[in-house]
Specification:
The protein is an alpha/beta fold. It has 2 domains: 113 residues, Rossmann fold (3-Layer(aba) Sandwich); 128 residues, Hypothetical Protein Tm841, Chain: A,domain 3 (2-Layer Sandwich). It is built from 11 helices and 13 strands. The strands form 3 sheets. The chain has a 6-stranded mixed beta sheet, sandwiched between helices. The protein has a 4-stranded parallel beta sheet with strand order 2-1-6-7, sandwiched between helices. Strand 9 and strand 10 form a beta hairpin. Helix 2 runs parallel beside helix 11 and helix 9 packs parallel to helix 10. The longest helix is centred in the middle third of the chain and has 15 residues. The radius of gyration is 19 Å and the shape is globular.
């Protein structure tokens, strides 16, 4: 059975993985100033950082509309036996709602709520492609993905809170205080929402080392088949700290490195770094 895997651009998979597994993405709209851009096509995190550093307002994201999803899915529904589309979590965006409505125009399109964002969503996208390559039927893959979505853990450490303050996700006073005290917050997706789970203090590489230990040490419930390292303009020493922690605690079969895209990177800011893995069933 010939199954096509598609997703929202928020999944942040690398171009190499997209090509290898024949995965197609529909871009989110990024609204910056008076202009509208396509995520990962006409705008990238570096563009957002430059805009903000020059005094511009933080961008906002918008979901593709019903017509855009319908137009995106139509050729795949025609050319493949089935299409499985994995959306960014429904608590983050209206993407899932719009894609599900568009799928009603076709009899062979399955839409899955990843309940996540960034490579938390990307984990499901890549796993779906692997299951499709193994010959699993689309309904089975869809059902498996719904279960997997409950077990994926995405978290990351922020270098600073300035970009979150500029986007209105925290106060400027809080961001200033955190920067003065050297506090590096760790955020995670819990029950489909992004929440602060820990606060580290010290240089970013040291905080990242503490973070990776907290995530992986003494864990017997982790699925070791794959892990993602996701970052945006990683600071010196941070990638090394992540990889050292993976060597010490991880023992993962596959390690994928990806760049955090505009949707998350635009408000987490440069220096953000984290990992994504799944718990065992």
């Amino acid at each position: 059975m010939n199954i096509k895997i598609t997703a929202d651009s928020t999944c942040d998979l690398s171009e190499a993985l997209l090509r290898q597994w024949n995965i197609s993405l529909i871009p989110m709209h990024i609204l910056m100033g008076e202009e509208s851009y396509l995520d990962g096509v006409t705008i990238h995190p570096a563009d957002v950082f430059a805009h903000a550093q020059n005094g511009g307002k933080m961008p906002k994201s918008a979901a593709p509309n019903l017509v855009e999803y319908t137009d995106f899915l139509a050729p795949f529904a025609r050319d493949y036996d089935a299409v499985i589309h994995i959306n960014v979590g429904s608590k983050f965006s209206s993407c899932f709602q719009n894609a599900r409505l568009a799928a009603q125009e076709f009899g062979n399109v399955y839409v899955v709520d990843s309940e996540n964002i960034c490579t938390g969503q990307g984990y499901l996208v890549l796993q779906a492609a692997k299951w499709a390559a193994d010959g699993l039927p689309p309904k089975n893959i869809s059902m498996r993905l719904q279960g997997l979505a409950k077990r994926v853990e995405l978290s990351f450490v922020l270098n600073q809170l300035d970009y979150m303050a500029k986007s209105g996700r925290c106060s400027g006073v809080l961001a200033f205080g955190a920067n003065i005290l050297g506090i590096k917050p760790s955020l995670a997706v819990i029950d489909g929402e992004l929440k602060v789970v820990r606060k580290y203090r010290g240089s970013l590489p040291i905080c990242v080392g503490k973070y990776i230990t907290d995530q992986l040490a003494n864990r017997e419930d982790i699925d070791r088949s794959m892990v993602f390292i996701s970052s945006t303009q990683a600071k010196p020493g941070c990638m090394e700290a992540i990889k050292a922690g993976l060597r010490q605690y991880g023992n993962f079969e596959n390690v994928y490195e990806t760049d955090i895209g505009t949707t998350i990177g635009g408000y987490s800011g440069p220096g953000t770094i984290g990992i994504v893995f799944a718990r065992k069933q």
